[in-house]
């Protein structure tokens, strides 16, 4: 089973559509959205094709496939237009024998990890910078930003597959890769 990891859409319909194309191309079963779906936030410029209503409509078409957490730019009103829960600080899912902890990164992050067991996977967004590392036995993953990458990184997403986590750009180029043993 594959899970697509996306974060920081920030209301860009252009990049939300790219993320859905990646979901279809990767033949993933679920989409984990790591927050900041609809709004750009006061510190960010307007992203390409800024259209929060259009993003909500697009994502609502996949609501039965989405597991989402709240980002620092998300608010309660977002749940009024989205057909899936978005206000949880984190979500935990089981993937085989692993626990996968999903969060945005503004509360829990690599400097403030929740209690996890060796071999578990911590997935966050927020920084807009891709990461795939094993830190003290915990796999720490950030798929980067769908719409607003930082530090000269490309627009990107992640894929959890059986024994690996891949981070790719929208052309399908591999940016980061880590085996989860």
UniProtKB/TrEMBL annotation:
GO molecular function annotation: hydrolase activity; metal ion binding
Domain of life the protein comes from: Bacteria
Protein name: Phosphoesterase
UniProt keyword Metal-binding present: yes
Family stated for the protein in its record: Belongs to the metallophosphoesterase superfamily. YfcE family.
InterPro entries in UniProt: Calcineurin-like_PHP_lpxH, Metallo-depent_PP-like, MPP_YfcE, Phosphodiesterase_MJ0936/Vps29
Domain (Calcineurin-like phosphoesterase) ranges: 1-160
Keyword Calcium: no
Cofactor: a divalent metal cation
Keywords: Metal-binding
EC number(s) per entry: 3.1.4.-
Origin organism lineage: Bacteria, Bacillati, Bacillota, Clostridia, Eubacteriales
